Amino acid sequence: MPGPIPEVSVVLPFYNAEMTLSGALQSISDQEFSDWECVMVDNNSSDGSREVAVRWERYDPRFRLIEEKRQGVMFASNRGCEAAQGRYIARMDADDVARPGRLKVQCEFLDSHPDFGAVAGLVTHVGDPETTGGFKRFVEWSNSVITYEDIYNRRFIEAPIVNPTAMWRRETMELFGLYQAGDFPEDYEMWLRWLDRGVQIAKVPEVVLDWHDSAGRLTRTHPIYSERAFYEIKSQYLAKWLSEHNPYHPAVWVWGASRISRRRARILEQHGVEMESYIDTKKSRQLEKEVIYYEDLPASGKGFILTYIRQMDNREKIRTFLKERGYVEGNDYLLVS
User: Fold this and answer.
1) What's this model's pTM, rounded to 2 decimal places?
2) Domain end among 192, 225, 258
3) Cα separation of 167 and 170, whole Å?
4) Which helix (H) or strand (E) holds 94?
5) What is the DSSP secondary-structure string of 31-43?
């Protein structure tokens, strides 16, 4: 006979993770919160990782092994979520380690915030700083984006949620769907879609996961996680948001007149957004569009600004400058990268 329905289902897809899987499963077993099941999804592994999963299934009946023959983490994740029984669904990857209090604090958050459809958390970056410095900088930025307002306003900079830290309500995925297949990062697209549909997401302000990075990680090697793929999907959702919220639509001002910034911003033109002017810190730059020297920027109420600036420190300086000029984030401008 089936056992009682667990409060939380941890969905953990794996593929050839023999060296790391047991550590990930051990971290789930060590959780302070005990009312969980772990749905382990074998995605056609050819090493010994399936045997690792079988041993854990025999050791603790809360671990349950299933298979997904269609290759890809998106298919395996969705298969696990469909098989999950819990009221809350938590994602986990086979090369990461959950902190002991992760499930407890995230369940408490969702229990006490009924208007929120999902919650994530902070991470500790685990990797070689000599080869994964860019990833480390992303983690620093991600850990600074905690509240729903921050996540909502800054979702067009980078993916605001570290996927294996996420936990959501069953009804959230039933109403708004799960990961979708396409030429885009499936997790980022899902967060953009959920936020676009009005799902409130926040993070518990503490580390819930040791996030391991390596040169062979899919986010480094697969084309759907390329920089171009990220810009294509974020531009699609950004253009939709601008059409609904920019009072000057389709015109925008782009802060960032460098060749790279202009190239990234031009992707929006494919979705009906017009670059009316560029804002620059140099007075002498000549471009095909009007260039506004930043100190000559008018007070708010004349145009909507997108800041295509990659460096985190410079973004914050621009944010401070615009605030002093009376611009309100989310109303008069958005930080974009």
Assistant:
1) 0.93
2) 225
3) 10
4) none
5) -S---EEEEEEE-
